[in-house]
């Protein structure tokens, strides 16, 4: 058997067993490694091979298992695991950019991603232009010869608008720019980002990869040259590597990720369908609904609707708060991709720091609710959302 299915790889991919033959992956909670001889230490510092470790900031067997497993699943040549999703975004960009470079980014970004692009990179002489990520003409106008990289979230938080990966990649590649995609909302399960033209894919493993709200983590995926030649030297010297304990949590998360995320997406679709047209709901934004503005793109790019549902209530902030407070199963929080269903009011939490004008520009109204759909019984989740709406 040479070619294995994706779910088989999520369970077995990258596994390395110790001499004890442990069934569950071992956690190598060690920062260092002992050498058989001084000569071996010297040789390893000169050049270390695939299963030769020096120091956990550089690499660790449990972390390597996680990296190989997610790379196999994603269809990437290699991966580097990071301490958080933000360490991954920062590492993917900062490892490759230098003073004088030009970057084009989508405007609708996770707050910390925006901070890196808007505040940190310009401090080091990188010029960043922002565009409406959904508008291919805007990308075409902003990308120029000498643009070093483009960056976007393939599915924007919290409106779930999509960026056309293949369309942007064609424009970026014509100018020789690297395409870096934050794919957290799209999930690894509904990803074909590399086949669609992404050069580098970044995930917050905190979200669907752990999927159980336990640990922060991240991963950068790309070609072996990029990961080992560009990302690894930067990450191992700046300290953003993943801890072995986190890697073990993420490995166990990967085993069930495909099952979890598909179940979450099925429930998300059921909720979106059930509440579309409810008298308290102005509009439902779910990539799997035919009414979604980019439905065709969603089918082509994701093949599904994803695990997130956004909808706008008629009564603004008061209705949004009353809705959240009326929920009986779904929790009020700001994580996403979790086994537990979560409701978020972006205007007063995740996007509170933006000005009302900035929020309006991103489509974040006071009545907007973002649901991250978990793995509870679909009927229970639909009933919970509907009863909370009916009480408004
Ligand atoms: C959560 C998230 C991040 C940051 O990940 P952390 O693990 O919290 O550091 C980056 N981008 C997107 C789109 C996210 O949802």
TrEMBL record:
InterPro entries assigned: Cys/Met-Metab_PyrdxlP-dep_enz, O-succ-hSer_sulfhydrylase, PyrdxlP-dep_Trfase, PyrdxlP-dep_Trfase_major, PyrdxlP-dep_Trfase_small
| Protein keywords | Amino-acid biosynthesis, Methionine biosynthesis, Pyridoxal phosphate, Transferase
Q: Which SUPFAM superfamilies match?
A: PLP-dependent transferases
* Subunit comment: Homotetramer.
| Modification N6-(pyridoxal phosphate)lysine occurs at | 207
**Which co-factor is required?**
pyridoxal 5'-phosphate
Which reactions are catalysed by this chain? O-succinyl-L-homoserine + hydrogen sulfide = L-homocysteine + succinate
Return the protein name.
Answer: O-succinylhomoserine sulfhydrylase
Q: Report the domain of life of the source organism.
A: Bacteria
E.C. number: 2.5.1.-
Instruction: Specify whether Amino-acid biosynthesis is a keyword of the entry.
Output: yes
Organism per entry = Mesobacterium hydrothermale
* Its job: Catalyzes the formation of L-homocysteine from O-succinyl-L-homoserine (OSHS) and hydrogen sulfide.
**What family does the database annotate?**
Belongs to the trans-sulfuration enzymes family. MetZ subfamily.
PANTHER family with a match to the protein in the record: CYSTATHIONINE GAMMA-LYASE, TRANS-SULFURATION ENZYME FAMILY MEMBER
Which pathway or pathways does this protein act in? Amino-acid biosynthesis; L-methionine biosynthesis via de novo pathway; L-homocysteine from O-succinyl-L-homoserine: step 1/1
